[in-house]
Amino acid sequence: MKALETRNLRKYFGNVRAVDGVSIHVDQGEIVSLVGPNGAGKTTLLNLISGLIKPDSGEVYLMGEDITGKSPNQLVSKGLARCFQISNVFEDLTVLENLLVAIHSISGTISMTKRLDDSEAVEKAMKILKEFNLDVKAHLTPKELSHGDRKLLDVAIAYSLNPKVILLDEPTAAMSYREKKTTVGVIKKLRDQLRVTVLLVEHDLDVVYEVSDRIVVMHQGQILSVGTPEEVREDPKVKEVYLG
Ligand SMILES: Nc1ncnc2c1ncn2[C@@H]1O[C@H](COP(=O)(O)OP(=O)(O)OP(=O)(O)O)[C@@H](O)[C@H]1O
Ligand SMILES: [Mg+2]
């Protein structure tokens, strides 16, 4: 089952062909990484999928449903959550309060779900924080967290929205080796224990090779190569773009 699919997606900015006819899919339960040099169109593709910008043409499907052009909020309620290249947490709230805002935002907007009362919401938030090893930091503000923990908080917030699919944009950017190892564990946990499908943009190829079921390589707005880590690693076209 395809959890996420794009068909011939296109977005030009003036004469910049940021995303130029991209068809990809992510099967349910997969971790797919999107890689490519700076300016390849990776973030633009995530923006198109998550509804932040609208495509010039082409379609996006979530669990088989055409979601093209829907707003990020509509997509969250359909099960698509994302983290940004630049973290967007509330700086003046604690870690726990950041989670509570996210949890209330969905329990309040999905009409079929009853709004959680405060103690239920706190219980849910603490359970999620524990999954991301942030429970002991629940009462700190984001400023008091390490860079790695801030990024984990982003992922925890996205996860608290009950997603079927999570989009991550450079989750390990600027992390130390140790922080990267933790994040790799968390990404695998999303797939293996929390049963979330993951599409991630990532520059660190060690991370990409370790977590990915499949890799999509973008270059100049187009798909250059798709395959398992082994297949992509051996693809001469990919070597050319990365080395040449
Ligand atoms: N809002 C915009 N207006 C104009 N041009 C844009 C806009 N957003 C992206 N671009 C251009 O589209 C191309 C793709 O950019 P994008 O940010 O998607 O690349 P990326 O693969 O995410 O790069 P990076 O690895 O540096 O994050 C680039 O040439 C970029 O300058
Ligand atoms: Mg980017």
Descriptive notes:
There is one protein chain. With 244 residues, this protein is α/β, with parallel strands linked by helices. It has a single domain (2-243), classed as P-loop containing nucleotide triphosphate hydrolases (Rossmann fold, 3-Layer(aba) Sandwich), CATH 3.40.50.300. Helices cover 38% and strands 25% of the residues. The chain has nine helices and ten strands. It has helices at residues 42-49, 72-78, 95-109, 118-131, 147-159, 177-192, 205-211, 229-233, 236-243; strands at 2-13, 16-27, 31-35, 57-62, 65-66, 80-82, 165-169, 197-201, 214-219, 222-227. It has a six-stranded mixed beta sheet with strand order 6-7-8-3-9-10, sandwiched between helices. A hairpin with a 2-residue loop joins strand 9 (214-219) and strand 10. Helix 3 (95-109) packs across helix 4 (118-131) and helix 3 (95-109) packs parallel to helix 5. The longest helix is centred in the C-terminal third of the chain and has 16 residues, at 177-192. The model has no long low-confidence stretch (mean pLDDT 91). It binds adenosine-5'-triphosphate and magnesium ion. Adenosine-5'-triphosphate (ATP) is lined by residues 13, 16, 18, 36, 38-44.
Record the SSE blueprint.
Blueprint: E1 2-13, E2 16-27, E3 31-35, H1 42-49, E4 57-62, E5 65-66, H2 72-78, E6 80-82, H3 95-109, H4 118-131, H5 147-159, E7 165-169, H6 177-192, E8 197-201, H7 205-211, E9 214-219, E10 222-227, H8 229-233, H9 236-243
Parallel strand pairs: 3-8, 3-9, 6-7, 7-8
Antiparallel strand pairs: 1-2, 1-4, 4-5, 9-10
